[in-house]
Amino acid sequence: MISVLTPTIRPQGLQMVMESLERQTNQEFEWLVEMGMPWRGHDLSASMNRMLRRAQGDIIVIHQDYITAPDNALEKILENHRLSPMTLFTYPVSKYIQLGDDLKHDWRQDAIGFRPYYQWETDYASAPRKMFFDVGGYDEDFDKGWSWENVNIGHRAEKAGYVVRCDSTLKTTAWDHDAAMAHPFRGKNENQELSKSKAMMIEAGEWRATAPFNGRR
User: Fold this and answer.
1) pTM score above 0.85
2) 3-class DSSP state for residue 32?
């Protein structure tokens, strides 16, 4: 089974995810949601860990809010992991501000094949659930500021023998809600230096999770 994980601080964006999931040709999945409250502070990594502890599926699909996936997306994701079981996948997300606008494509639109660990974009992505347990889950130090938690976990996954690939044939679309409303946390890569320091610790074999990730395998 697949576990679809959606962290959100703006629940109005869940409608698009729900409608996309309702249309999936493969309905063998569960949908887990963690709804954060902006006034309580940023806790994306902790939210991901909580969902991973509850997840029952062998494959994790990260499907962030405001994103619509093709109707056969989960079928394609299962096939990807059947063929490449030690792989973290990322998929293109093209954005519009208003329906009918031209889509703004990201770098993944024409990218395919193996990518460096720091390109594991997780707005729409998938990975074996086992990987998260192998590396100790998300490092909750990254909840001190926005972003780079995906770079850190991608680095640890690479050290554990996993690879990152982009499948540009599975194209998703998203409403660019950040263009329409202010994001309460997003800044200019607040955690970039933290990510670099964690990478150095990983390379030196000194990295340890800040909180034990004691979920089920």
Assistant:
1) yes
2) strand
